[in-house]
Amino acid sequence: MTSPRIVLFTGKGGVGKTTSAAGTATLAARRGDRTLVLSTDAAHSLADAFGEQIGGEPTQVADNLWVHQVDAQRRFERSWGDIQGYLVSVLDAAGVDPITAEELTVLPGAEEVLALLELRTHAVSGSWDVIIVDCAPTAETLRLLALPEALNWYMTRVFGVQRRVVRALRPVLSRAAGVPMPEDSVFEAVERLHRDLEEVQRILTDKDASVRLVLTPETVVVAEARRSLTTLSLYGYRVDGVVANRVFPTGGADAWRDAWVTAQRSVLTEVRQSFVDLPVWMSAYQPGEPVGADALADFAEAAYDGDDPFATPTGEGPMTISRTDTGAVLRIALPFAERKDVDLARHGDELVVTVGSYRRLLSLPAALARHTVAGARVESGSLQVKFRFDQDNASATTRRPDREERP
Ligand SMILES: Nc1ncnc2c1ncn2[C@@H]1O[C@H](COP(=O)(O)OP(=O)(O)O)[C@@H](O)[C@H]1O
Ligand SMILES: [Mg+2]
User: Is the pTM of this model over 0.90?
Assistant: First the structure.
């Protein structure tokens, strides 16, 4: 079974993410690919874009084209229900009243991540050739995309330890009245969630998945798109293009429009200079909203202008490891990041990379176990961490990658 081509659309609120996602999906369906558009944005506007009624299940809107607006709440209960049930029983035994207990066991922000679990289910189902994801505005999307790894970390630590403790204590504690011991089904639910999240991460950082940045030619919007590119790369997501939407067409004798055309022209130059390695697809500001499959297909057709919107992304990707004589070099692409923005720490077999307000806990690949960090630098848009093979692998060193350190 080949895995589906997955394309995520993100960008600031209102720039045209849903329109671009829906338009791209329409093109896939029209060339005969079994296509699904999935929305992780609580403000479900795919129904409006297609001008169709859409429920919580995949709904067919055209030949080969289905739309799924994920009901995060329901999905959440399905995955978290067993775990929550147990946590509630613990709090209940501790005398916390049931309604408060219920509230305490809701994982903040986790509803969104479950939309990603739905994406996983679709991705492995074998039912789709192309899956398009209409994401929430940038900040939420970045939080969402960072979550699988963060939750993985949390669950391995918390439940991994707890499981060992519980095994050891169960014979003793089950005789003592009070705190209920988690059933194996609870741990199984945790492990399932853990596995599924890991798979989400794998699917989204795979070579068949990519993210597109949608922007409008305005200075603040472009600044945000640049920051998103840095953060997406930090988390290992591949960005393969930019959609510049609502570009005023030239022509007409209107001074108001002329002023806009001139202002946008200079921002568009900045866009091209910022994203030199990426295609910038332009889409005109239309006299009306592109609604319905035909209008959406026209929108996308004009934007891609003959490019293949589903080509598998090429290039190295945001993270590579290369061997050297003495060890290895890990490279993480961090476009636009400067030395002062980046912090690096090693904790055991994890590398903690902080860029501005975003942090990634990167489990070091097995190939880098028994290596120590021998130096790090930020250069031409990427962080390079030099590892040296070492029998007595030291850990927990913190450093700012501002100079080459010699052993
Ligand atoms: N190029 C365009 N010309 C005219 N209207 C547009 C264009 N792109 C998007 N729109 C309209 O702008 C609104 C917001 O677009 P939408 O795709 O929903 O943005 P987002 O998903 O980023 O919030 C919608 O009503 C959409 O139909
Ligand atoms: Mg939208």
Answer: no
